[in-house]
Amino acid sequence: MVITIILNVKVMYVFVDNVKQLMDDNLSSYKLQEAMGEEVDAFSVLVQNRTEENESLYQMACRNMKNRLETMNYDYEQIGEERYAILWNIRNSYEVYEKQRNKFIIMGFDDPDYITELYKTYQMQEYLEMYTKRFTGEVIDSSANYYEEQIPLLKWMPYVLSVISLMAVVGLFLLFRLMTKAILQTLSQLVKVSRGIEKNDFTMPDVAWSCQDEIGELVYSFNKMKHATKDYVRTLEEKRSVEEKLYQQELEKANLEQRFSFAQLQLIKSQLKPHFLFNTLNMITRMAQMEEAPVSEEMLIALSNLLRYSLRTTEPFTPLDQEIKVLRDYMYIQKMRFGERITWDIQCEVTASEIEVPIFLIQPLVENSIIHGLSSKEDGGKVAVKITSDGEIITILVEDTGAGMEEDKLQQIRESMKERGRGVGIGLGNIYRRISAYYEQGEVTVDSLPGSGTTVKVSFGRRK
Fold this sequence. Notes:
Elements: H1 2-48, H2 52-71, H3 76-105, H4 114-177, H5 181-198, H6 214-270, H7 275-290, H8 294-312, E1 317-319, H9 320-338, E2 342-348, E3 356-358, H10 363-374, E4 381-390, E5 393-400, H11 407-418, H12 426-438, E6 443-449, E7 453-460
C-alpha cells in the first residue's frame, strides 16, 4: 500500500508538473501570436483613420506585444534548440520592425515615401505573424510529442498499481483472519456505541473488556470519553438554552427601548401640536408686516418654521439639511433673545441632502449648550456645530464656550450613558437612546471643563 501511494504520488506530480509546463507554453505562445495579431489590426485601423482613440488602442497593442516578448521563456535548456531559434528570431525582427513602425507613424500623408514605408511595414508584420504562428506550431508539436512519449508509461502503470493493490488487499485479508473473535466483537461494540454517540445517544451500556492490556486501555479511555462527551453535550445544550433566553431578552429590551424612544419623541412633538397656536402665529406675522416690524416678523417666521417642522414630520428620520435649517431658525430666535452675548457657527462638510438622521438630533444639544452653558455667563459665548464624515461614520460635534461642568457632574453623566441614557436629561438621554437603538456604531460622548465649555460628540455609522 505504501508503494502504491508513493507511485501514485510520483506519477501525479511528474505528470501534472509537465502538463502544467506544456499548458503554460501553449498559452504563452498563443498569447504572443494573439498580441501580434492585435497590433497588426490596430496599426491597420490607425492608418485608415488617425484619431486619438485609434492612437490609444494602437499604443496599448504595442505595449502588450512588447510585454509578451519580454515575458517569454528564453531558457535554452528548457525550450530546446528549434523553439529558441524561432523565438530569438522573432525578438530580433521585432526590434527592427519597431524602428520601422515608429518611423512610419511620424510620417504624414503628403510624404513622398509614405506608401513605400507603409508596405515595408506591412511586409515586416507579415513576417512576424508568420514566425509567431510557426512558434505556436512548434510548441504544439512539442506538447504532442510529450504526450506520445508518456502514453506507453501511462498504459503500463495501471497494471503495476493493480497488482500491488491486489497484493495489499490479500495481505490485509490474511491479517484480519489472525484477529481473535473477542477483538472483533469488541471493535463491533465500539463502532455501535460510536454511532450512538454520533446521534447524541448516550444510553447504551459501556464497552466491556476483561483483560488489562492495550485493548483494555483503549476501552477504558473510550468509556471515559463517552461520559465526558455526554457531560459536555449536556452543558452545551444548557448554555445554548440560556444564551437563547438572554438573546430574546436583549431583543425584547432593545425593542422596548426603541419604542420608548419613539414614544418620547412623539410626546415631545405632541406638546407643540395645537393648531390654534400655529394659526395665531401666522396672524401675528401678518400684523407685524402691516406694522412694518421686520425683526418681529423674522422671529415669528423662524418660530413658525420650527412649529411646522414639528407638526408635519411624522417619520423618525429626516434629511440632514432639514435638521440644519431648523437649527438655523432656532439659533436666529436665540440670537434675537440674547443679542451680542451669543454667537454661533455651523460647518457641514458632508452632502446634507443625501444623509438621513433621527429627527430633532442637533437642536436639543444646541439648546442644552445655551441653557446650561451660555445663559449663565454674563458675557455669553459661542456655540459651534461641525458635521464631518470618515468613510461610513458621520460625526456631529456641538461645542460651546459656556460655564462647563464639574468633574463629578461629568462623571455622573458618563455613568448614566453606560446605562443607555438613564438618569441623563430628557434631550441628551433621548438622543443617546435613539442613536444606540438605530445605528450599529452609534455613540454619544460628553467632555467638559469648568469655565471652558462643553463638547458633545455624536457619531454613528450604518443603520441597523
